[in-house]
Amino acid sequence: MLKNSRTRSPPVDENVALSIGIKALEFLAAEPELLSRFLSFSGLSVEQLRQEANRPAFFTGLLDFILAHEPTLEAFAAKMELRAEDVATAQRVLAGPEPRDVE
């Protein structure tokens, strides 16, 4: 069951964000059609995916991919018992602060 927005979740720090990213990779690996779509979208081969999965920045892109398609986001969040908002927060945490405009 998808947690609703009123359900309290612990704060999403970098460790929690990385854990959500790892869960996203597990979810992707269990869905061959989705994995194929991600590989096509990212331009990665399976071997490159294995190498990139060691970098936190990879999980930022993976969560971007999941967030970009609402049915995928809903399926992932439901399966992992997360709120969609927590997935979005994890992506932002892993992406780091946005660069500021310098005038």
Tell me what you see in this structure:
- With 103 residues, this protein is mainly α.
- Helix content is 67%, strand content 0%.
- Helix 1 packs across helix 4, helix 1 crosses helix 6 and helix 4 packs antiparallel against helix 6.
- This is DUF3572 family protein.
- InterPro entries: DUF3572.
Main sheet attributes: strand count, strand direction, barrel closure: none
What is the molecular shape?
Answer: globular
Mean pLDDT: 88
State Rg: 14 Å
Structural class: mainly alpha
Percentage of residues assigned to helices? 55-70%
How many helical elements? 6
From the N-terminal CA to the C-terminal CA, the straight-line distance is 47 Å
Topology as a string of helices (H) and strands (E) = HHHHHH
Low-pLDDT runs of 5+ residues are 1-6
Number of domains: 1
Strand content: under 5%
Strand tally, please?
0
InterPro entries: DUF3572 (IPR021955)
Organism: Plantimonas leprariae
Protein name: DUF3572 family protein
Pfam family, one: DUF3572
